[in-house]
Design brief:
Elements lengths: L8 E6 L4 E11 L2 E12 L2 E11 L5 E10 L2 E9 L5 E3 L2 E2 L8 E4 L7 H7 L6 E3 L2 E4 L6 E4 L2 E4 L4 E6 L4 E7 L5 E4 L3 E3 L2
Parallel strand pairs: 9-11
Antiparallel strand pairs: 1-2, 1-17, 2-3, 3-4, 4-5, 5-6, 6-7, 7-8, 10-13, 11-12, 13-14, 14-15, 15-16, 16-17
C-alpha cells in the first residue's frame, strides 16, 4: 500500500467536543518524518494550547514526542521516548504501562490518527489493534489507550476506542491525513 506524499502543512477545525483549531507541519527526518504542530481549544469552559513535535521512523513507529501545554494554571512539558519496539520512557523514567504501544496519540490532536494508519498499512477489510501512548491535553499525563483500526475502504477506517465508548468511521485523504473525525475534527486545509 502506498500513500501520497504528505503536504507541507495541514489544518483542522475542532468540532462538537470542543471549539478550536490545529495546524501541523510535516518534514522528512532521518528517513522518517517530523510533525510539528499546535492546537488550541475551549473545552468544558477551559482553554488550552498544546504545542508538539513528534518524530516517527521509516516504519511510522513513534520514536519521540515533545509536548507543551499552556492553561490558566501554567505551562507543562512532557517528553516521551520509545525504543521503537514498544518500550517507553516518560520524562526520562520507564513507563511499563505503555509497553507494546507503537504510536503516540495526543488528546488535543487530529493528526495523530494518521500514525497507525501509515504504520499498519492495512488492506481493505483488515483490522488491527493499535494501542497508543495517550497524552492528555490539560495535564500532559500519559496513559495506555487501547484502540482498533479496520480499513473499510480506500480512504475510510472504522475506529474504536472502547475506554471512551467511541466507535466511528474516519475519513482520510490520499496522504492518510484525517479529513473527518466525527464529533472531533474536520480538515480545514
Amino acid at each position: 500500500m502506498t500513500f501520497a506524499p504528505l503536504p507541507e502543512t495541514a489544518a483542522w477545525r475542532h468540532v462538537t467536543a470542543r471549539t478550536g483549531f490545529e495546524v501541523a507541519y510535516f518534514r522528512p527526518h532521518e528517513g522518517g518524518h517530523r510533525i510539528e504542530g499546535c492546537t488550541t481549544a475551549v473545552e468544558d469552559g477551559r482553554t488550552w494550547a498544546v504545542d508538539y513535535t513528534i518524530e516517527v521512523d521509516t516504519s511510522w513507529t513513534t520514536r519521540l514526542a515533545r509536548v507543551t501545554s499552556r492553561t490558566v494554571t501554567g505551562t507543562r512539558r512532557t517528553f516521551l521516548e520509545s525504543d521503537g519496539r514498544g518500550r517507553w520512557q516518560v520524562d526520562g523514567s520507564p513507563a511499563p504501562d505503555l509497553d507494546g504501544c507503537l504510536d503516540v496519540d495526543l488528546e488535543s490532536s487530529a493528526v495523530t490518527n494518521t500514525l497507525p494508519v501509515h504504520r499498519l498499512r492495512l488492506a481493505t477489510g483488515s483490522g488491527a489493534p493499535a494501542p497508543a501512548a495517550y497524552v492528555r491535553a490539560l495535564d500532559l499525563s500519559a496513559e495506555r489507550l487501547d484502540q482498533h483500526y479496520t480499513r473499510a475502504g480506500d480512504d475510510t477506517y472504522d475506529y474504536a476506542a472502547p475506554v471512551f465508548e467511541v466507535a466511528c468511521r474516519l475519513h482520510y485523504d490520499p496522504s492518510a491525513l484525517i479529513l473527518d473525525y466525527p464529533g472531533l475534527a474536520t480538515r480545514a486545509l
